[in-house]
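Please check these two lines:
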Amino acid sequence: MHIKELRAMSKEALEAKLSELELEVSIERRKIASTGVASKKTKAREMKRTKAQILTLLNERGARK
């Protein structure tokens, strides 16, 4: 996701997306560990980056402590 899309989302929507991404990242990590497929590493990296952007936005808004 792009940062502009994330900034337009509400606090509740961001928190829901964050929990969804945490689940997806853990699933991808297990897939990479078991298969070692390089193409999925990029997907996991993008998800981790989006997760970090969401956490940053929540911290900026003072919504997460």
The chain has a mean pLDDT of 86. The helical segments are 3-7, 11-35, 39-61. The chain has one domain: 3-61. The chain has three helices and no strands.
